[in-house]
Amino acid sequence: MLSPLPRRFPLLALGLVVLLVIPAAAVSSVRGSGAEAKVLQVGTSYYISSLNPFVGIETNDSMAYSMVYPQLVQYVPGPRIGSDWASSWKSGNGGLTWTFRLKKGKWSDGTPLTSADAVWTINTVLKYKAGPTSYVASSYDGIKGASAPDPQTLVISYSRPIAPALSNLSQTYILPKHVWSTKLGKNGKGLKEFRPQENLPNVSGGPYTVTQYQQKGTTAFKPNPNFYGPKSKSAGVAFTYYTNATSMVVDMQRGKLEFIDSLPYGAADAANSKPGIKVTFGAGSQVTNLGFNSNPKKSKNRELLNPRLKEAFEYAIPRQQIVDVIFSGHAKPWASILSPASKAEGWLNPAVKPLPYSVAKANKILDSLGYKRGSDGLRVVPATAGKLAQSEHAMSYSVIVPKDLDFNGDRQFDILATAFKKIGVELNLKPGGDGAQAFELITAPGGKYLKADMYTWYWHPYIDPSFNLSVVTKAEWYNNSDSGFDDPLYDSWWRKQGSLVNVKERQALVWKMQAHLATKRPYIQLVVSNAISAHAPKWTGFEPTLGGSCKCYFTSPRPLG
Q1: Which of 385, 513, 539, 561 has its CA 20 to 30 A from that of 97?
Q2: What residue ranges in 330-418 does DSSP mark as E strands?
């Protein structure tokens, strides 16, 4: 599915979280398809870690933001950029200004929703972009500031034309000024410390307010009667986290769930044959990878900075085995940092393809680099001299594996470790904890990317390439970078591509950047997996491929009859 914040998902461990249904009396009465509206009960193996856009990194965090906060524009079925809070927009002054006409509305507490909220949000992010708001600042690329000629008009000024301006703004969540302006704290630090999930019901401008929050249980979304857009066709949403895929499927069969947002790969085929379940298979956007600590100043295992060595590693990876064993065939080998979602608009470079599996070629490259095998079969890296000298050491590396993956990360590690053993390289599993803990392990100490060797994780790239091309820039260190990649030439390309309003010129540079990354290999991309969802046959209106990039994800589903 498309992901407004392309990050990480939880592991399917053992156990079951009991479904907590929102009482019908607790939500507004909404009618859909001629029948009394019912609560949409959603099962998920992905949790919501926070309702604060400045701290959340899980994919379903951004889904929640979309449901409770206004966006100027959003992706709509197509997919294409369409209306959300803004009813219309136009560019002027050679792309240096964007003017939005806003729909009239109120926050859920009755406070008027006006352009002043957007001005405050945008200017506050810009003010603190070097600190507390840095995590979201890449979506504000080129913005100088915002102003409000009147309550229903917003003007955003840019320092230079930005090609993906609307796509970037689809990732921008407008916050209630009267709430968040009281949370600034010293130097804006309070923006990251504020926990909206502990102040329920939250003040919402989107289609729902959150009335109950349980990170590893049920989060309850109640329709917001003041919402400016299409109303919810259900009486509310009960969004429940499961740790066991089988229990989730059984609950759908028993009528306790209407929707499973992402069916686990190993359960999909079996679920498709069960009564009471309709499984939807679609092209996915989740790109998994083997990532490398790519900080050029790191002091340990510096040979991992060598693109030629990583080329040998790529030859050694049995991608098709990963597809078959880990994803039950619901994936395909992949090499680009972008996903197939970018293909239709021409951003995906067709020349960037996975290397074929060849242990012989991998060993030949490592032999040519002078990494001879020791008596135990492991290759040895010779001692080096200079400022960052290393002593002779075996090619033995740790691989951080987060526990909050939506596939069996430990089993994938076993496949990689077995494969690397054939080329004289030892991999050692290092448990990564949940997403936030894994990120700290990878980027520590202090965001300098000095200690980690490798890790396995993934991204859900947007359609527009700008964000995912940004995650390997120096500007994203300790924000969205999980590689510590530092390449000034690449960084200059990223800045330039965002300013190329000529589509063909921008496409050529985006293709060049993909090829560059595929050669330098801060990641070795492994596979792109399919999107698999399931719903009860008595419900309709689902838009599973859009994910949280569209408010219709929750507002459109409705019972039949």
Answers
A1: 513
A2: 331-333, 372-373, 379-381, 393-394, 396-401
Q: What is the pLDDT of residues 208-240, one digit of tens each?
A: 999 999 998 999 999 999 999 999 999 999 999
Tell me how far apart the alpha carbons of residues 354 and 349 are, in angstroms, rounded to a whole number. 12
User: In the chain, where are the structural domains located?
Assistant: 24-277+536-559, 284-529
User: What distance in Å separates the CA atoms of residue 552 and residue 419, rounded to the nearest whole number?
Assistant: 44
Structural contact between residues 3 and 59, judged by C-beta atoms closer than 8 angstroms: yes
CA distance 88 to 98: 11
Residue 105, beta-bridge partner list: 113
Q: Is 403 left (phi over 0), alpha (psi -120 to 50) or beta?
A: alpha
Which tokens hold the place of 198?
Answer: 């502990």
Q: Cα separations (Å) of 440 from 8, 90, 402, 437? A: 14, 41, 11, 5
Confidence of residue 20 (pLDDT cuts 50, 70, 90): very low
Residues 6+ apart with CB under 8 A from 210: 51, 64, 68, 196, 197, 200, 201, 202, 204, 219, 220, 221, 222
Model confidence pLDDT, tens digit, residues 127-136: 999 999 998 9
Could you identify the residue written with the tokens 């608009």?
345
Torsion of CA 267, 270, 271, 276, to 10 degrees: -160
The alpha helices in 214-327, defined as continuous H runs, are 245-253, 265-272, 307-315, 319-326
Structurally, at CATH architecture level, domain 284-529 sits in: Roll (3.10)
Nearest to 4 by CA among 241, 215, 167: 167
The chain-wide mean pLDDT, for the chain, equals 90
**Structure tokens belonging to residue 433:** 């904890």
Q: Are 79 and 549 in contact (CB under 8 A)?
A: yes
| CATH level 2 (architecture), domain 24-277+536-559 | 3-Layer(aba) Sandwich (3.40)
Question: To 5 degrees, how large is the angle CA 51–CA 479–CA 344?
Answer: 85
> Which residue type, as a one-letter code, is found at position 255?
G
Q: DSSP string of 166-181? A: HHHHTT-PPP-HHHHG
Write the CA distances from 150 to 85, 99, 134, 153, 316, integer angstroms: 15, 12, 29, 5, 61
38, 269 Cβ separation under 8 angstroms? no
